[in-house]
Fold each of these.
Amino acid sequence: MLNKIKKLKNMPREEIFFRFQEKALELYEMIRHISGRDLLDEKKWAEDICGLTYDSNFKQKLFERFVNTKADFFFTESYEKTKRCKLIKEKLEWKDWISEADDILKGNIVSLGCQMKIPSGKSWHLDPVKGKPWPEKFYKQAENAGDMKACDIKYVWEISRHQYLVVLAKAFRLTGDEKYAEKIFTILQNWIAANPYHSGVNWSSSLELAVRMISWIWALFFCKDSKFLTPDICALVLKSIYEHGRHISNHLSYYSSPYNHLTGEAAALYLTGALFPVFKESKTWKKTGWDMLEDNVEKQFHEDGMCVEQALFYHHFTLGFYLQALLLKRLHGENVSESMLNRLEKALEFSMHASRPDSRMPMIGDIDNARSLYFSGKHSWDFRGFTGIGAILFQRPDFKYISGESAEEIYWLFTDKEIHDFLMTKETRPAELSKAFYKSGYFIFRDSWTDESNYLCFDCGETACGLSEDDIPSAAHGHADALSFQLSAFGSPILTDGGFYTYSGEEEWHRYFRQEEAHNTIRCGNKRQAVYGGRFKWKQVKNPVLTSWNLSEYLEIAAGRIDYDARAFHQREVVYIKNYFWLINDLVNTEDDDNISCFFHFDPDAEIIIDEINQQITACNGDKGLIIKYFKQALIKSRKGEISPGGGWTAWGYGMKKPSYCIEMIMDAKQERIFSPLLMIPWKKSRDGISFQDYDLSQTDFSAKIFIKGNEFLVSRSDESGISVLMNGEHIS
């Protein structure tokens, strides 16, 4: 309560007024819901909303308006169906979609890593993990039901996002088999009957409604020519879509969740307004949705392209909403502003540069498996479809180099000519290798654009936009991961992030994956980069500052520093001797009794060997690996798959975790200042030819001699002269 009062005192008047209006509207809606006056009767729906005469032909007229839309009205109508399906069958692994669709026909889906059954009737309100039903009350009462606090609402929401309907719809599109369309409309009828307007938790989040609406839109347009899309079913679904749009327009997340939530809601409003002109509010929704997207694009993405939430899954979630709306507007022959196009191109450039050599993204920030463009199969960290869209939209051959020609999204979203031009375009490698993203604070090292390149992503960015240094908790999807890094050796991921597990599950697991211990960074005693303020929330945030970024022919350096107070700080310097090895220098100033813990999280497929005598850790992932040589005396703790959250786990998706090695290197802070250098040497097929000889380590000075495949390196670092590297006796820079 005290935190809420503090937050209220800091709110601008406009936000207080908006939130007051929101609460008043919810009360009004609850009174109408309890009295049964919020249900839309058929006559009012026909005449007041659709502008049609309410008679025996009303549903037929509505049906005809939907199915007889002009060419290029939606993506599925912008190309010749038979020709496109043939191309998809030539280019993509489409039979996997059919297998998945056949599983869905049997009622089986995979949701948030769990095998589940598609609900029916009242089970749409059932928590599929705990087996406990959410109350079928007014949506706010249902969401806040005290006896449901142990349940994670994400699971019941996820099933009602209906994104698996898109899988069925694609199967119908490609095969023409009516059984897939029949299943879609059976599910829709069942859901609508079990979830009357404003009844139950499936109406409690505007974003959930937005994602569900978009799923329905794709399913409807894919199945427009199905015999199971009757006038009765069409009217039923369109009426529910209208109710979804009405709720979203009344409950936009301007202040409560102004990032990916607001973007998803705006995109859904725009799509609904543009695609269903029969609704009386369509023009308003279309304009409101687009204006919000336009006005907020520079608030959603930094000028360097990364999303302000500092979470790469949400980066693509937000980006997918924007791209979908933009492409529809473009299909309708309407202009898109240069400012929006420029910012979205930057967002795609960030995705291109952040991608690892194995084509997956580094795990940064929260994850909830959300996809705004529900293509390209099951959950993964592979977002190449987005750069494929960008390759066509912005005519970027370097984007095509990343996406290849197997990105499913492009074959559903573009015209025949655009696809033809894309396939004829010769891809080119991106011009830059290592790249700085100053505003968001990410610094990417790589030595090539092949699938066997060495790669490191260094995080020197803020925890997330909108957080503060005071004691007032604020929600954010960013983690306490400042000065962490992720590393691939010869294309194989070795050091990765701990990831993220759940929002509403056991709190110790939720908390662990957001704090320093789950990232490749340092915990400075009891000091924190950000203080945990409850689920989603941070307070007393300390953000790092960049102290150096320098690229030369053979040497690349990034360095950052985070200050905990007037005395304590952590400074990390990342030095890449191109094509050979990394030097990581950590300098920590702390209280005399603080222990320093340096964490390393290894890919779940990696194996490790710890040699404490020679102060060396060897990791391998297949025939590629990394040697980590440490010079500071430390206690080494290795954990994998233990019961506790910190027991060695990688949470690669929501509710999904795998055992993986976590090493904690503990240095006893008997002195005020600790300097700990680390050498990290990638190897391929064999570790032979890599050795270490003389080294010297003082309080802040260091030198070491390394032999790598017949080359001798002398590396030194001092406060006075900085970094020096000799290769076979010659200075390199």
Note: DSSP finds 21 helices and 29 strands in the chain.
Amino acid sequence: MSTDHDLQIPELHPIEDRDLDGVCRFLQANLNPKVSLEEWMRAYRHPWDPEKPNNGFMLRYQERIVGVFMAIYSRQTIRGHVEPFCNPNSWVVERDFRKYSNLLYRALLAQKAYHFFITTPNPVVAKIFSRSNFQYMPDQITVLPCVPLRWSSGRIIDNGRDFENFLDATSYQIFNDHRDIPWLHHVAAGSPEHYVYMIFKRVRLKRMNSIRILHVSNPDHFLDYRHLLAIHFFRRYFAITMQIDRRFLSQTPLVSLNRQDGQPKMYFSDHLGAADFGYIYSESTALDQ
């Protein structure tokens, strides 16, 4: 015998820009109240893909939002080719409607044109995505000391006004796309002909100041200038260490430690590898959490 509860079948809708106010209020109330409504809204209004099809999908029951699965879309240049990316994030459904959660999941993954990556899935979500052939990214983080182990030449650029004449078009576009996010920092080291550009956050590791690198334009150039960067980070931010995902590096520096990242990260693509998926253009940069 069916009950009223059994008949509560929500409707699936794409999340358009005009829906973001209500959707972000739902996220603040049901997922993370520490993130302000303004921050939630801003996370999904970056113009990272002018042709984005939606901001994810939502479930509505009697005009009320009862579940969402958000998505951040972007166009990124990988080895000279512009590729479409989708970063699913912030999946939350009210308890009475959780049996319909897969409607959101299937709707997102039905968009076959995209490379998918998720940077903060909980273990339950990671298990669900693994059933759809998502691959786990390597979970090793390399920790480097912010001490000058040897002399290194080159310039440090950390003033946004100087980046235009220092970075190539791809790196400058990445800088422009992320420059207004207040918790992100930007630095370049080297020369216009041979440089590394980085996006990072200031964090704590073992109760000490540390630099968490979220994007590195050229891993080999990062290794070339790591001593110059170490001096800069120590002097500017009193940082003791800098951290970078091991998958971004072609080799592990001798003076370094590897630690395991407890946060799983996953991707799905027909031709890109784990090193092609970073933290830029995702919830890991769009939200401060």
Note: The mean pLDDT is 94.
Amino acid sequence: MLRMMLTVFLATTTLSVWAAGGDFQNGTPGRSDLVWGAKFPNSPDEGVDPVVTSVMAPMAGVKKLGGFDELVPYVMPSPNQEDAGSCLYMSLTGMAEWWMARLNPAMSRVPGGPLDFSERYMMNMAGLDEATLPVKNWKTDSMLVFNETGQTVHNDVYRFTKGWYKSDEKGDYVQAQPEGVDAEYGAPYNWIRELDKIQSGYIALPKFEREVLFADPESNQWNVGIAPTDLVDRIKQVLVERKAPVHVLYNHYGYWHAVNIIGFNDQMDSQGCRFVEGMRDYMSEQPTKLRQRAAGAKDAKEKERLLKLAEKWDKTSRRLEDSYSAQGGCHAKGMFYVRDSLYEDPMGPMYDYDPSRVGEEAPYTKPIIFHEYDWVRYLVNHATQIYVK
């Protein structure tokens, strides 16, 4: 049912947009896709409903984006994470894929090829104590899990999949019988650890280094309006100097999200700061909606919960608006090239989550989307460059 709803919505809302007179080399997106994606909560604590957002992305076949784009050819697309709550591991697996492609430029980079690694493997290994010993702050250090394992595994061997699952009394996902009581079918199944099924397909990885460019002093993955005023320039600088992607966490319409920054273009039109302006509107609307729900709540504890949540949204919205005003609002120029796991490419190859079934297939996500520089200025709360010496 989830896939059916996503497919209908995303298929009917993907548009091609012409930026008049524009082209990538001269700074505007030119012929670009306006693509839509659904971000689900990372856990029940964040909420239950997805939020749908749109971004610009290069059309299929565009090879040269302009600006600093020399890292883009090594990007591998991601399966849509859907409601798995797995963005951290989609992005870090994508980082490992990028580095292996960069270090082995003659190897095929087609989806399903030799450099298509298992996101599920990273998800499951990150839950083991022996793999997370070097991780002091999961928001900046989780790539070091790969250094402990020294390897990953091919996606064909341990697939990012879908299956029947349910929650146990502790709230953990466990296997469920098809159509059983409380059973659901979907991507959260990936959190169920079945590492003993891996008999082959391991791939040795290089040792990864990392430089933390910014970590929120409050260690809050939902924080906004707290990035250093020079973070945009700092990210651009290290991208050029080390020629290595930057991993960031940011507030995505109330849910934290993780992606990789691959490049940038100073001259590209920011298209009215679509993401940031949408975020501002969304943030300002939520307190009123929550208080309306609280007014209609019959349960006292639920009323109290909703009112506290409204206060939290108020605080976050004010912080965003203060930063927005202090740093000059929406800037007309500048886009980052970003690898994400939300925005499907309707013209791209299909991903088969579960080869034992028919009907759950979906397009891979766009290899690259565009985010305005102001997205970093106002919404990013952690930034870490991952590199190999």
Note: Confidence is low (pLDDT under 50) at residues 11-22, 24-29.
